[in-house]
Amino acid sequence: MSLELQINNDIKAAMLAQDREKLEALRAVKAALLLEKTKEGTTGEIPESIEMSLLQRLVKQRKESALIYQGQNRQDLADAELAQVAIIEKYLPKPMSVDEITQRVQFFILQTGATSIKDMGKIMALASVELAGKADNKTVSEIVKKLLG
Question: CB neighbours of 22 closer than 8 A, spacing ≥ 6?
């Protein structure tokens, strides 16, 4: 089942259950998917890698908002943002462990023949495509630097 179809079905279920938090989070996901789908130059179908990066971006935005709200002593708003994070994260694949990421990065290094930090771009290009939605690019970048440095 496509992510868009799954989100639409879950929106209907949340409406019937009158679950406002879940409905708000799912509507945000649906809006982001529609924006991506109607972007100029797209074919109408969104690749899975873009869907995953879109979901990650939504999660990141909400976590940043929650931190800002906590800094302003607005725990009620921070809790609402974190509740949305929990809902959106259910649609992301299980994140990879650091060991799993390290193994994949070592494979990419062997595959490309990278020998120095100058080759980091090649590794990150492969990793960002294959590990989209499964690993945070910041973590991948740190591992690549450690292995090549």
Answer: 10, 14, 87
